[in-house]
Amino acid sequence: MEQKFVKETRCIKISRVFPPDVNNHNTMFGGKLMSQIDDIASISASKLCRVTAVTASTDSVDFLRPIRPTDSVSLESFVTWTGKTSMEVFVKVITENLRTGKRDIAATSFLTFVGLDETNMPVPVPRVIPETEEEKKLYETASHRSEMRRTRREASKKFADFLLTKYPWE
């Protein structure tokens, strides 16, 4: 099985926070940040497998600090772990106050992607090799997150059986 270093999947995107990006609290819209997280995570996943990579789940988006118009926002993503056809991608969001230079972790997120072939069938993906302490810690703790995902997915499928698909007026 092919292997790649985690660093081969690393992506970084830095942008300013402009007035249309903020809500009535003058902080960045969570949904806008979530869209940016999914976007950069998909690039990391594609860099690993070099086929179409689709989002299978967003395990978590933990908003830790507000992001303000005086900040730049840096999203850093990389594949932390792989299964047979799936990839766990970690995204950390770092703010930098452009006036003071102070940097903080504003959010973290874990997403799962699946590599697909031309017929939209899952394909095996390369294994990742962690090198830095951060990469190693995320790699070592990934199997626990994978098991939690599996359990949550099973529960979600059972829950979906109870949900209605008819329009409310039917």
From TrEMBL:
Transmembrane segments: none annotated. The keyword tRNA-binding does not apply. Keywords: Hydrolase. Residues 7-119 form the HotDog ACOT-type domain. Signal peptide: none annotated. Pfam families: 4HBT (PF03061). PROSITE patterns: HOTDOG_ACOT. Belongs to the acyl coenzyme A hydrolase family. This is Acyl-CoA thioesterase. It comes from Paenibacillus hexagrammi. The lineage of its organism: Bacteria, Bacillati, Bacillota, Bacilli, Bacillales.
